[in-house]
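I have been asked to look over a protein record a colleague put together. Thanks in advance; the entry in question is below.
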Amino acid sequence: MCQNEGVRPARTEATVSLHETVAAGTWRMILSIPVWPGDDPLPGQFLMLRVAGDSDPLLARPFGISGFDRRQEGADVEIIYRVVGRGTGIMERWGPGQTAAFLGPLGRGFVLPPEGSSSLLVAGGAGLPPLLALARKMEVLGRVDELSLIYGEASRDRLVDMVSGIFPGIKTATCTEDGSCGTPGLVTGLLEAEEFGEGRHLFVCGPNPMMKSVRDLTADRCLSAQYSLEARMACGFGVCTGCAVKVSSGDYVRVCREGPVFDGNDLSQDSFGEI
């Protein structure tokens, strides 16, 4: 769904129809909308969710869209989020029937890889949702066998359950920093053992230090790379410019408008600022 430059996207009213924990401090929420006005969200797009109406905290929060289902004229939008501050702390207390409002879908999503190709998804921590949306889209297209996933977390209790029904049938390798599940260490350790000789497409989302390390390790080893960047956002549609990052050309671009998904060739090490 595209927006005209400088035009505020429409506000969508929703009702929470499902809210459940899927890992330690991590929640899955389904937002049901009676009438969905536009196209399906693209994998990698996000929404700006208001958590407290017009009261404190005032600003909306960005959340990657992890799932989308049409139902008659309406739709169900899924987000998976981690409780990290006051806004998500308020959301944690929501139950079914809670009303909410959001702007979206927003931003630039992933470009699907060529049919019949091989793609590797690399997710670190809270970077899982947009890659999950991509995997689900590929499953709908009958292409999930073209994908594999590397998924890293701090510890076993932080990993979203692979047999929860949330994941499509995708070959997955997990790692944890404390060694409590999967391969001990970081996603870069698993990446070092990956074969890129025949050419693969890379899709990455996670903490910025992780993505910076992945870019260092995989430069010139894959046919293409797309990164979904994380940044602090106030508006989500390009007006405030608070999420600007520096790209390889030396220019500054807005993560919410020109991203959050970027071609790896357009990024520099300066693009992965701390948030």
